[in-house]
Amino acid sequence: MNTEPKPPLDIKQAEARFDALAASFADARTEIARTIIGQDRVVELALVALLAGGHALVVGLPGLAKTRLVKTLGTVLGLDTRRVQFTPDLVPSDILGAEVLEQSQGSDRAFRFIEGPVFTQLLMADEINRASPRTQSALLEAMQERQVSVAGTARPLPRPFHVLATQNPIEQEGTYPLPEAQLDRFLLQIDIDFPSLTDERAILVATTGAQDPAPEPVLGAADLIEAQTLLTHMPVPEGVVDAILRAVRSLRPGAENPGLLWGPGPRGGQALITAARARAFLQGRSVPLLEDVAALLQPALGHRVQLGFGARSEGRSTADLIRAVESGLE
């Protein structure tokens, strides 16, 4: 193992690359918006999740361009993209791959591993809550460790590796709710709402004509990896760190939060810091601010908080709790 220390970061070169990459990602965001009309916040959050090196759970009704979003991101960012439709009869080997026994012409037999669709850079797990818990759990190691273990052998996944999973908020019959451990692996939950009247008119005109605008590649996988690396060196002000700690700790069960079943652990704070850096980068800033934290509270912590039945029956919601925390940041 190579134990030599890594060379120090060249500040001037890093600043130059930071500015160049920020401009390139601004172009990529514009290109994505040509195809994903009227969902600027959704596009921003998806890019934040990728730049922060994480995964995202995309929740929205059918027909709100969830699949189109993932395909567009893959094209514009130059990532190898695959899609898996999750169904109740899906088994882990359908995602991870499996070893098969092959016989050569000389009658020699040997096992050969056939990679599953998880061996990609951007995996779309469509309707992830329709698969059984056993199949859902097959993604846990991949999402956390960037590797999968098959037949006792750990196999690394490509770099970068990101999962964008979709979930339908209705039609819960025949679905399996994601366990808390898997929800916690998602950096952000991105909720997609209906477009405005103006945006919906533009969507109808753009997508029903003779030509549907196709996205063009702007970046490559190496650019995304470089941006992710640079963002790990972005300084975070003490005031921002303190605000994140207050937010995370104020959403945990206790006397101040009766009826709260569970709240965010340290991974929630990590998600806020990395996502705040990514959002600042997309905004053209080299330092995250409190406004970045406020904008990311719901996507980063909403799926990490759960109220009990009694609290929900009283009309309380996790969104209200997070809004109260957000108001305390101002």
From TrEMBL:
Which keywords accompany this UniProt record?
ATP-binding, Hydrolase, Nucleotide-binding
Sequence ranges assigned to domain AAA+ ATPase in this UniProt record: 52-196
Would you indicate the residue range of the signal peptide?
Answer: none
Pfam families the record matches? AAA_3 (PF07726), AAA_lid_2 (PF17863)
SMART domains registered for this protein in UniProt: AAA
Enzyme Commission number, as recorded: 3.6.3.-
* MF-aspect GO terms: ATP binding; ATP hydrolysis activity
Membrane-spanning parts: none
Q: Which family does it belong to?
A: Belongs to the MoxR family.
What's the name of the protein?
Answer: MoxR-like ATPase
